[in-house]
C-alpha cells in the first residue's frame, strides 16, 4: 500500500511541472539503493534555486539493510572544497515515509523542505546529500547539480 501511495504522489507531482527528477550520482550509499532524486521547484536541469524561497528535495530509496537512522549532512562542492550547509531539523526520521525504523527491503521517501538560506554560496555547484546512521556514518549518499541565485 505504501508503494502505491508513493508512486501516485510522485506521478501527480511530476505532472504538475514544478518538479524534476534530476540526474544524480550515488557517492557511496552503503545500505540503500537510491531510485530517484526529485527537486522542487525545478522545471529543468540544472535546478535553479532562489535564496529566500522554498525548495524541497525528495530522495526515494530501497533500504538494502536495516539502519538506525540519525541525521542529515549536506555539503556544497566549491572550488575550495566541500562546505557544509547548516540543516535545521536534520533528523532523518522526521522526514521519512514510511516512518522509522528503516528496515531492509523497504521502499522509503525522504523529503526535506526549507527556505534556501541567504548565506548559501551563489552559482552552479554540486550538492552532496548524506543520510547518516546514529554513529554518523552515511548509509545513503547522492550528488546532484543545482544553481543558486
Mean pLDDT: 88
Major sheet size, sense and barrel closure: 6 strands, mixed
List unreliable stretches of 5+ residues.
Answer: 1-17
SSE succession = HEEEEEEEEEEE
Q: Work out the helix count.
A: 1
> How does CATH name the architecture?
Sandwich
Relative helix content = under 10%
CATH class: Mainly Beta
- Name the overall outline: globular
Could you tell me how far the N terminus lies from the C terminus, measured between alpha carbons in angstroms?
A: 39 Å
Which structural category fits the helices and strands?
mainly beta
Strand content: over 45%
Cα Rg: 15 Å
- How many structural domains in the coordinates? 1
- The total of beta strands comes to 11
Keywords: Secreted, Signal
Organism: Opisthorchis felineus
Signal peptide: 1-21
GO biological process, one term: sterol transport
Amino acid at each position: 500500500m505504501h508503494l502505491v501511495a508513493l508512486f501516485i504522489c510522485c506521478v501527480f507531482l511530476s505532472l504538475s511541472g514544478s518538479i524534476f527528477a534530476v540526474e544524480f550520482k550515488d557517492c557511496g550509499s552503503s545500505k540503500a539503493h537510491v531510485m530517484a532524486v526529485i527537486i522542487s521547484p525545478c522545471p529543468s536541469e540544472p535546478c535553479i534555486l532562489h535564496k529566500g524561497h522554498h525548495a524541497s528535495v525528495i530522495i526515494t530509496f530501497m533500504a538494502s539493510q536495516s539502519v538506525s537512522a540519525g541525521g542529515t549532512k549536506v555539503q556544497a562542492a566549491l572550488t575550495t572544497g566541500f562546505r557544509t550547509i547548516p540543516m535545521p531539523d536534520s533528523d532523518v526520521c522526521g522526514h521519512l515515509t514510511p516512518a522509522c525504523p528503516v528496515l531492509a527491503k523497504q521502499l522509503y521517501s525522504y523529503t526535506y523542505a526549507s527556505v534556501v538560506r541567504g548565506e548559501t554560496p551563489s552559482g552552479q555547484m554540486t550538492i552532496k546529500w548524506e543520510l547518516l546512521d546514529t554513529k554518523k556514518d552515511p548509509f545513503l549518499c547522492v550528488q546532484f547539480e543545482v544553481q543558486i541565485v
